[in-house]
Amino acid sequence: MRIVMIGTGYVGLVSGACFADFGHTVTCVDKDQSKIDALLNGEIPIFEPGLDELVANNVAAGRLSFTLDIAEVLPEADAVFIAVGTPTRRGDGHADLSYVYAAAEEMAPLLRDGAVVVDKSTVPVGTGDEVEKIIAKTAPDLKFSVASNPEFLREGAAIDDFAKPDRIVVGVNDDHAKEVMEAIYRPLTSNGALLIVMNRRAAELTKYAANAFLATKISFINEMADLCEKVGADVRDVAHGIGTDSRIGSRFLMPGPGYGGSCFPKDTLALLKTAEQFDAQQAIVEAVVKSNDDRKAAMGGKVIDALSGDAAGKTVAVLGLTFKADTDDMRDSPSIDIVRALTAAGATVRAYDPEGMEQAQKIDGLGADAITYCEDAYSAMEGADGLVIITEWKPFRALDLAKVKDLMAAPVMVDLRNLYSRKDVEANGFTYVAVGR
Ligand code: UDX
Predict the structure, then answer these.
(1) Parent domain of 225
(2) Which residue puts its alpha carbon closest to atom 7 of ligand 1?
(3) Which residue ranges does the record assign to the UDP-glucose/GDP-mannose dehydrogenase C-terminal domain (predicted)?
(4) From ligand 1's centre to the CA of 324, what distance in Å?
C-alpha cells in the first residue's frame, strides 16, 4: 500500500513510522519547512521512546520519507491519512477543524480514483461527512471514499500501543474503504489484532467515548481517594478491590493530581460541545470535567497544607512537571496549577523534570524568571522546606531518602503519585503526605 500521512505531529509521525514498519510505503507531509528539514536530517522533533530508531530504520529501508510537496506524492496514494492538529478553538471549546478542512481542500484535485481519505485526527461526529463534501465539491468526478480511523495511542508507549493494540477501530460507509483499511492493517490482524469495522459516525464517536470513559475512571478514583483520606481507608486497597471485578477492570484506577495531556482535557470538552450541538445530555462527562478542574486547582493547597498551611518564604522542590512520565508534553499538566499556587502563596519553587523543562518554561507563571530549574532531582531539593512529586518518572521512584533528608531544610514529602511506602519514608524521619491513604 502507498500511504501518505498529512501532518508530522505526534500522531502522524508515530503512525507513519509504524505503517512503514509494517512494510507499507509511507510519505509524511508537513507544511512546516523546519520540521521536514529536521526529519530529513534524522532529527525527531518529539520525545517518544523508540521513535528515532523506528524512523531511522524505515528511512534506511526506503519505506519512509518526508516531503513538503503534497503534489509530488498524492497522485500515487492508495490511502491518505489526515493527522493534523484539532486543538480546542479559542472562545467556544469546539474542536478547531480548520486544519482538517484545509487538508481536504488541498488534496482534492490531486487524488487518484479509488483513493481512501482517512481521518486519524480526533474529530467530532460528522467531520467525515464534511471532508467528503469538500472533496466532492472540488473534484466532482473523482471516485473516492472517506474513512475514520481514530488512534488510541498513549504518549510514552505509542509504538507498543500501535503494534499491540487492544483493538483497531475503523469507520467506513462503503465496501471499497473497508477493503483498503483491512489491507492496511492486515500485518496486525494476521497477528491476531482485533479490527472493528463500523460506520463512520460511530467510529468518530468511539474515540471521544473512550477518552471520556477513561477520564471518568480517573476522576472517580480521585474522588474516592479524597473520601479514603477522610474515612481512614487506603485507596489502593479500594482500587484493587473494585478493579479485580472484570466488569470494572484494574487499569486507569490510579489516583493522582488529576489528568492532563493533549487528549483527555480537550476531548471531554469537545464531546460536551457535540452533545450540546445535538441537544443530548452528558451530565456525567460534565461532572468529570468539573471534578478534574477542581482537583488540579486543589493540589497546590494540599502541598501548602503539608507546609503547615503557610508557604510564604518557604522553598518547595517540585519533582516532575510533565502531565505524565516518559513525555516532554506539558499540555494541561496539573503541575501548572500547582506551581502557580505555590508561587502565588509566596513560595520559592525549585523544579526538575527529565524531559519537560524546555516546554515548561514557555508556560505563563512557569518561566525561568518565576521558578528555578535544576539539573537533577537532588539539586532541586537543596534547602527545601518541602518536596512534591507531581509526575511518576522512574528516577523519582527510588530516591536515596537519607540523602534527600540531608539536602532539605525540613523533611516534608508530598507524594501525589503514591510512589512510596509510608513506612519507609516515615522511618527516614519525613512527614509524608500521599493520595488517598
Ligand atoms: C490518552 C489515552 O490513553 C489514549 O488512548 C488516547 O489516544 C490519548 O489520550 P495519553 O494522554 O497519552 O493517552 O495518556 P494516559 O496515559 O492515558 O494518561 C492521561 C492522564 O491521566 C495523565 O495525566 C495521567 O497521569 C492520568 N492518569 C492515567 C491517572 O491519573 N491515573 C491513571 O490511572 C491513569
Answers:
(1) 215-289
(2) 152
(3) 317-422
(4) 8
**DSSP tag of 152:** -
Residue 277 lies inside a defined structural domain of this protein: yes
User: How far, in whole angstroms, is CA 258 from its chain's centroid?
Assistant: 13
Q: Which helix (H) or strand (E) holds 5?
A: strand 2-6
Which atom from ligand 1 is nearest to the alpha carbon of 155? 12
**pLDDT given for residue 332 in this prediction:** 97
Q: Which residues are catalytic?
A: 263
Q: Are 82 and 100 in contact (CB under 8 A)?
A: yes
Residues (pLDDT < 50) of the chain are: none
Q: Helices 51-60 and 10-21 sit at what angle, rounded to 10 degrees?
A: 50
Can you tell me which atom of ligand 1 is nearest the CA of 333?
A: 23
What pLDDT is recorded for position 292?
98
**Amino acid present at 314:** K
pLDDT of residue 88: 80
This prediction's pTM: 0.93
Closest residue by Cα to atom 19, ligand 1, is 259
Question: Which one of 259, 267, 418 would you pick to mutate in the ligand 1 pocket, going by the greatest count of ligand atoms within 8 A of its CB?
Answer: 259
Residue 258's pLDDT is 98
State the pLDDT at residue 90. 78
What distance in Å separates the CA atoms of residue 302 and residue 15, rounded to the nearest whole number? 40
Same domain flag for 159 and 303 = no
Name the grid cell of 171: 469507520
Q: Which three cell numbers stand for residue 120?
A: 486519524
Question: Judging by beta carbons within 10 Å of its beta carbon (0-12, 13-18, 19+), is residue 269 exposed, middle or buried?
Answer: middle
Shortest-distance atom of ligand 1 to CA 256:
30
Q: Which of 289, 318, 337 is the last residue of a domain?
A: 289
Place of cell 481536504: 104
Q: pLDDT (tens digit, 9 = 90+) per residue, 17-64? A: 999 999 999 999 999 999 999 999 889 988 899 999 999 999 999 999
Mutate to test the pocket of ligand 1, among 154, 267, 328 (most ligand atoms within 8 A of CB): 154
36 and 76 in a common domain: yes
Please report whether residue 143 resides in a domain. Answer: yes
Which set of grid coordinates corresponds to residue 434?
A: 500521599
| pLDDT on residue 93 | 74
